[in-house]
Design goal:
Layout (H helix, E strand, L loop, with lengths): L26 E6 L3 E6 L10 E6 L4 E2 L2 E2 L7 H16 L7 E3 L10 E5 L2 E2 L2 E8 L2 H10 L1 E2 L2 E2 L9 E7 L2 E2 L8 E2 L2 H8 L1 H24 L2 E12 L5 E4 L8 E5 L15 H7 L19 H19 L7
Antiparallel strand pairs: 1-2, 2-3, 3-7, 4-5, 6-7, 8-15, 9-12, 9-13, 9-15, 10-11, 13-14, 15-16, 15-17
Length: 316
């Protein structure tokens, strides 16, 4: 297991631009990832001496391993509010790291005070449907992360049962690497690996059932798990947001076709279109996003929150 300053899976050495992180009285900025900024309590602040973190979800958006220059308004609020809602739905399966949403006024609605965890160096991915890197791997080997699958599956096929397809965490800006369960055992030991697998699948099954009741398919998702000071397993980071999950409208799902997602697909599609003029394989940073792409992406995130929770997000 690796020591982490953050249960948001951002180490103290993370190298996203610190200049993007706001100054927050009573807290000291420690690290930034693609989306989140992490703070520890200042010694003279209201949380001084407490072993907690302030995790702030920004409106930054990333695509193709780049942090884009154009933010998506209210995205950080969606990620925070939706994570908090899911933590409540899943608390009987595994404890979570959320301590309080009572945060400094300048980051109200987009930040959580969390327990500091020791994070497992594993992205705990569960898949119920075949798409993305899982589909690519299946086409090569008829398996995903060493899990054999039947012949004849295609884009968006529902799997016979959900599977645990872990990934090794990569450095900021790099791709996570899909790995086998045996690799996880080698990394963290058999007892911990088994607990990660069982907990991940239990979380996925509960979340998929809740989403299904709301007309949404949870195609796949990733969880981050760590241990607290007593060695107990704890759910950290964000959970079941459009950034960490593929949510599909059930009425648009057709096996064999790409299903529209409640996520940043508008951004990806525009960046790879002739309209952007960007060469994904080149050395240039992606261009600024046009207003219509920003607004459609924002709407998609807000819709995901509203459909899952059954209520609109309070933005005041």
């Amino acid at each position: 297991m690796t020591q982490s300053a953050s249960s948001a899976s951002v180490s103290l050495g993370a190298s996203a631009p610190a200049s993007r992180a706001p100054v927050i009285p009573g807290w000291e900025h420690r690290s930034s990832g693609k989306v989140r900024d992490v703070y520890t309590p200042a010694a003279d602040g209201p949380r001084g001496g407490q072993d907690v973190l302030l995790v702030v979800a920004s409106d930054r958006i990333s695509a193709y391993d780049h942090i884009l220059a154009t933010p998506i308004p209210d995205k950080g609020r969606v990620l925070t509010a939706l994570s908090a809602w899911w933590f409540e739905q899943l608390a009987d399966i595994v404890p979570h790291h959320l301590v309080s949403l009572d945060v400094p006024a300048q980051v109200t609605g987009r930040a959580m005070i969390c327990r500091r965890l020791e994070m497992y160096p594993v992205e705990c991915v569960a898949r119920g449907y075949l798409t993305g890197s899982g589909l690519t791997e299946y086409r090569e080997s008829r398996s995903v992360c060493g899990v054999p699958l039947p012949e004849g599956l295609t884009e968006a096929s529902r799997l016979p049962e959900p599977i645990f397809t872990p990934a090794a965490k990569a450095e900021l800006g790099e791709h996570d690497e899909n790995v086998s369960f045996e690799r996880v055992v080698q990394t963290v030991g058999e007892t911990a690996a088994t607990a990660l697998r069982e907990t991940t699948l239990a979380l996925y099954n509960r979340a998929a059932e809740i989403a299904r009741e709301r007309g949404i398919i949870l195609a796949d998702t990733k969880f981050e798990l760590g241990t607290d000071a007593d060695g107990g397993l704890v759910l950290g980071d964000e959970v079941l947001t459009p950034d960490s999950s593929r949510f599909w409208p059930a009425d648009a799902w057709v096996p064999g076709r790409v299903t529209p997602s409640f996520d940043k697909q508008y951004v990806r599609d525009w960046l790879t279109s002739p309209a952007s003029g960007w060469d994904r394989g080149g050395d240039q940073e992606p261009p600024a996003l046009p207003d219509d792409v920003v607004e459609r992406t924002r709407t998609r995130y807000l819709e995901a929150y509203e459909r899952l929770t059954g209520r609109p997000l309070e933005l005041s």
